[in-house]
Design a protein that fits this description.
By secondary structure, this protein is α+β, with helices and mostly antiparallel strands. It contains 21 helices and 14 strands. Helix 4 packs across helix 17, helix 6 runs antiparallel to helix 21 and helix 18 packs parallel to helix 20.
């Protein structure tokens, strides 16, 4: 192994990327319904690689974790703050309850079994499958004023506790949400998912990535004019409700300009765009539908606009439509409204608020005509605003330097908690002001994946030698403590949710409960059982909250154990 040690000595980054590659491959392997996952797999591989002897600069660990935790906050910010309302009070209580019960459970068990601060935090990170606790706890340990060797030992024990308890942490959440909860409520996840979906049919339909409606709301069709000969374009468009638009006209083989006063002639070919129901209703009054005609193609766009116009704020969709002249709204169709990332019902009564994002459909000339009357256009881009991102990280890391003394106990958010808080605020503000601060979804996902997995690998490489010795001495007892940390908070929270908070739909409750534990594997199983997206909304709310609540357990455990 000397040759391998020499390679890692001269290029320790090889050990990091080797652990990532092999760890993620191992994490993809299914053991029945259980899958280890890339983060846990990378940690285990890093521990093995560390036996050769690897030294990684601790600054790498700090940078990777800051990127990860800031990205989590940035992504969760809009949903986190928008979830703090009366409509989701049960989810807020559920997520807070699980975090509090988990904290009490870990602290009591640590006192009973004489676990040090590092092992206690590691058991919490693994048993609750909240990997971010590793970083926030490690930060808090570094602020205790201990010697360098003791800090390294405790931080190493965090990784040890995590490695021993993580596997059952994932598996136990699946057992509770997918097996125990349906039996407690006497119905299957699928049954209640169907019932909830039926009651929500009148609401907003949100399509997932790669999904398209088989019968789209907006269509474009070609007609050879027959019955409509002699009628003016404006007369035809305004006679339809909802309105349709005649976008192009071909006469005697030539495409000609079309205006509101243009009168159609027998044999003209027109391109009609509008809502499917309106187009089909007007079809017999226009003429014969044809399936293609050279030169009659039209490129339409979907564009997002952020509402800033005082003429729109506070008014309903119906009021806006009534007050806007046909000339202004010609060729423009409203297809969606979202508020802080949450879709709103597209019904006449829905009121528009400042900062809402409206999705409109139409030809480029029509969209450009109305854009300035609404607000400003969200320009599609795959470029990260590094000015905004860098400022957010600086603010978060500065907040993390603050230390408050509670008696003799130092309490601090640390760099992890500070970056998380900053990410939440900067992500929320970006959702309100979308003209700057963009971090594309793909970039956010990369920061989360590489940041967390890379951070955990550095921990494993730095502490792996010590980890093996400790696992041999205490592995079984730590594992059993982890089982209690995984199961007890979830079961108690499940009982409170059922009998106190009065959850009566298994699919919705399972989504909320798995989100409260940020249990992605469990949520995946719930979606498989539900066969629809009903559990997603409660999961999103509690998951956003859990990413904050559970992450902050790290410094609390270090302070209380």
């Amino acid at each position: 192994m000397d040759w391998l040690h020499d390679i890692f000595k001269h290029s320790p980054e090889i050990a990091l990327f080797l652990s990532l590659a092999v760890g993620y491959r191992i994490g993809q392997i299914h053991f029945g319904k259980f899958q280890l996952g890339g983060v846990a797999g990378s940690l285990l591989v890093a521990v093995v690689v560390s036996q050769v002897g690897v030294t990684v600069d601790p600054g790498v660990k700090a940078v990777l974790f800051a990127l990860f935790i800031y990205a989590v906050g940035y992504e969760s910010g809009p949903s986190f703050f928008s979830s703090l309302g009366k409509q989701s009070i049960r989810e807020i209580i559920l997520a807070a309850l699980l975090a509090i019960i988990s904290l009490v459970t870990v602290v009591v068990l640590a006192k009973m079994f004489s676990l040090d601060k590092g092992l206690a935090a590691g058991v919490a990170a693994g048993g609750l499958t909240q990997s971010a606790i590793i970083g926030t706890a490690g930060d808090a340990i570094a602020k205790l004023g201990l010697g360098a060797d003791e800090v390294k030992r405790l931080q190493g024990n965090v990784a040890i506790g995590y490695a021993v308890t993580y596997v059952f942490g994932s598996f136990g959440a699946i057992i509770v949400c997918v097996n125990i909860l349906p039996k407690l409520m006497g119905r299957s996840i699928r049954e209640d998912a169907i019932a909830a979906e039926a009651s929500m049919q009148a609401g907003v339909q949100v399509l997932g990535p790669g999904q398209l409606a088989a019968a789209p709301q907006l269509v474009g069709r070609l007609y050879r004019v027959g019955a409509a000969a002699g009628r003016a374009v404006a007369d035809i468009e305004q006679a339809s409700m909802p309105p349709i638009t005649l976008e192009k006209l071909k006469r005697d083989g030539n495409v000609i300009d079309i205006t509101a006063d243009t009168q159609l002639q027998q044999g003209d070919i027109v391109l009609v765009v509008g809502r499917r129901t309106a187009v089909l209703e007007q079809a017999p009054k226009l003429g014969e539908e044809i399936h293609g005609e050279e030169g009659m193609d039209l490129v339409v766009q979907r564009r997002e606009l952020v509402v800033t116009s005082q003429q729109l704020i506070g008014k309903s969709i119906k009021e806006v439509a009534e007050e806007t002249s046909p000339v202004v709204r010609h060729g423009v169709y409203l297809v969606g409204i979202s508020r802080m990332g949450k879709p709103q019902p597209l019904v006449p009564e829905t009121r528009i608020e400042r900062g809402d994002t409206v999705l409109i459909y139409g030809a480029e000339r029509d969209i450009n005509r109305v854009a300035g009357r609404i607000g400003y256009m969200v320009v599609p881009s795959d470029k990260t605003d590094f000015v905004y991102m860098g400022a957010g990280l600086v603010v978060g890391l500065l907040v993390g330097l603050l230390v408050v003394k509670l008696g003799s106990i130092p309490l601090t958010l640390g760099s992890g908690g500070g970056a998380l808080l900053s990410g939440l605020l900067f992500g929320w503000y970006r959702a309100k002001k979308q003209s700057f601060g963009l971090i594309p979804n793909g970039a956010v996902q990369l920061l989360k994946d590489l940041g967390l997995a890379g951070f955990v690998v550095v921990v494993g490489l730095s502490s792996g030698l010590q980890a093996v010795d400790t696992i041999r001495a205490q592995g079984i007892s730590i594992f059993l403590i982890g089982v209690v940390v995984t199961m007890l908070p979830m079961i108690l929270t499940m009982l409170i949710g059922r009998y106190v908070l009065r959850y009566d739909n298994v699919a919705i409750f399972a989504g909320a409960l798995s989100g409260s534990r940020s249990a992605n594997p469990a949520f995946g199983e719930i979606l498989t059982k539900a066969e629809n997206s009903v559990p997603t909304v409660p999961f999103a709310i509690t998951y956003a909250l859990a990413n904050v609540f559970l992450t902050l357990l790290g410094p609390l455990i270090v302070a209380l154990v």
